[in-house]
Amino acid sequence: MVVIATIILTGMVMIIFFIFWKMRKQRERTISPVPDTPQIQISPPPLEDIPSRPLTSGVPTTLNYTPPPQTLQEICADIESLTRPIVAELKSYTSPPLPVHNTMVAVFMLLGEDRKLLSNWSNILILMKGSRENSLMSRISNFTVADNKVLKEVRKLIKDMTFEDVHSAGKNGSHLFRWVLKVCNDIE
C-alpha cells in the first residue's frame, strides 16, 4: 500500500514539474524579442511649432445633442436592433426617472393603451412583456396612425421634454422618445 502511494505521489510530482516547465518555456518564448526589430523613437514637436490660441475658442459652453433627422422606418430599425437592451434597461427600473416614465406612457398611448392604466409603472412593465404580435417592437413596427385626441394628449405630455432630458435619464429610452417625437410631428 505504501509503495502504491509513493508511486502515485512521485507521478503527481513529475506531472506538476512538467506543467511548470512547459509554462516557463511558453513564457520565455513570448517574452523574447524578435531579432532585427527596428526601434521607433517618437518625440513631441517643439513647442515653438504649436500655434498658441485661447483654450475657450470654439468650445461650446453647453452640450446640446440633437439626433439627426430620420424617417419613421429608420427609427423603427434602430429600435428593433436595440430591443433587448431597451427592454432590459426599462425592466430594471422599480421607479424610473420621470422622463423615461413619460416616454413609455406616450409610447403606449400611441399604441392604443388607456392613459389611466399607464400611470402605474408595473402596468407598463406588464405591457412590455408581451410576446410575438403583442411585443413592444411588433406593435411599434405595425403602428399606422393614432387618434387625433391621443396625439393631443401625447403632445401635451411631452411638450416640456427634450431629447437630452430623456437621454440623460435613460439612454435606451431616448430611442423610443425619438419615435414618439417623429410620430407626433409627422401626423398633424
What does this structure look like?
By secondary structure, the protein is mainly alpha-helical. Helix content is 60%, strand content 0%. The chain has helices at 2-31, 72-81, 83-92, 98-110, 115-118, 121-128, 136-141, 148-158, 163-169, 173-186. It starts with a helix and ends with a helix. Residues 55-63 have low confidence and may be disordered.
Mean pLDDT: 74
Q: Which residues form runs of ≥5 with pLDDT under 50?
A: 55-63
Largest sheet: none
Structural class, from secondary structure content? mainly alpha
Number of helices: 10
- SSE order, one letter for each helix or strand: HHHHHHHHHH
Fraction of helical residues: 55-70%
- Strand tally is 0
- Overall geometry comes to elongated
Report the end-to-end length measured between terminal Cα atoms: 92 Å
Portion of residues in beta strands equals under 5%
**Radius of gyration, Cα only, in angstroms?**
30 Å
